Automatic annotation (TrEMBL):
The keyword Hydrolase does not apply. It comes from the Eukaryota. This is XXLT1 xylosyltransferase. Keywords: Transferase. GO terms for cellular component: endoplasmic reticulum membrane. Gene3D superfamilies: Spore Coat Polysaccharide Biosynthesis Protein SpsA, Chain A. One of its GO terms (biological process) is protein O-linked glycosylation via N-acetyl-galactosamine. The keyword Transferase applies. It holds the Pfam family Glyco_transf_8. One of its GO terms (molecular function) is xylosyl alpha-1,3-xylosyltransferase activity.
């Protein structure tokens, strides 16, 4: 099997002009740091990878696999028409928090609400990028345009610091049809930070996950259970 190593500096050079505009909305700290572009790699992967690469799985390092990753690849076959990215829901009320102003102005909204009926936002620890679909989707590429990003951040009063995850979450509120939602068992997040930071009353509605876990995600340095 062939392994190709990509140079981070080279990737960043290609990325920066594409994602520069969105960095100011979804990066930690203020200003647009050149090096932060790498946190938006997934967003523009279809513009950077060679055309012959049609599908990519992008994963965080703090994961533990309980099943064959090949089974995750099969999820590409479940993408509905028009979907370009496979991603699991965020399992903490982080976006209930981020969208507080929009939620206050729109009391009937599902934005930031817990599953199964709400829109809790996404977690980018496990990503299925259908590069071919991303390249073909007129809608998706429009959403990368600075003016579109600006409009959406204004509509939702959105200011984030989680990079690609924030972008996908905000876009998913407006265009859920672009995403194939992975079952929580494919990205079983373990971080409970928001339970102790003002959301203990609703926390479990976000955090629960039925079924046998296929991938554990020890986000915010949470220890992953031993076998």
């Amino acid at each position: 099997s062939q392994v190709i190593v990509h140079d981070v500096n080279e990737l960043t050079e290609k990325l920066f002009p594409i994602v520069e505009a969105m960095q100011k909305h979804f990066s930690a700290g203020s200003g647009t740091y050149y090096s932060d572009s790498i946190f938006f790699l997934s967003v523009a992967m279809h513009r950077i990878m060679p055309k012959e690469i049609t599908q990519i799985i992008q994963v965080d390092l703090d994961l533990k696999y309980k099943t064959n990753i090949r089974d995750l690849f099969n999820e590409f076959d479940n993408f509905p028409e028009g979907a370009v990215i496979g991603i699991a829901r965020e399992m903490q009320p982080v976006y209930r928090h981020t969208f507080w102003q929009y939620r206050r102005e729109n009391p009937q909204t599902k934005v930031g609400d817990p599953p199964p009926d709400g829109l809790p936002g996404f977690n980018s620890g496990v990503l299925l990028l259908n590069l071919e679909a991303m390249r073909k989707s007129k809608l998706y590429n429009q959403l990368l345009e600075p003016t579109t990003v600006q409009k959406l951040t204004e509509k939702y009063h959105f200011k984030g610091h989680l990079g690609d995850q924030d972008f996908f979450t905000m876009v998913g509120m407006e265009h859920p049809e672009l995403f194939h939602v992975l079952d929580c068992t494919w990205n079983r997040q373990l971080c409970t930070w928001w339970r102790d930071h003002g959301y203990s009353d609703v926390f479990d509605q976000y955090f629960q996950c039925e079924g046998e876990v296929k991938i554990y995600h020890g986000n915010c340095n949470t220890p992953i259970p031993e076998d």
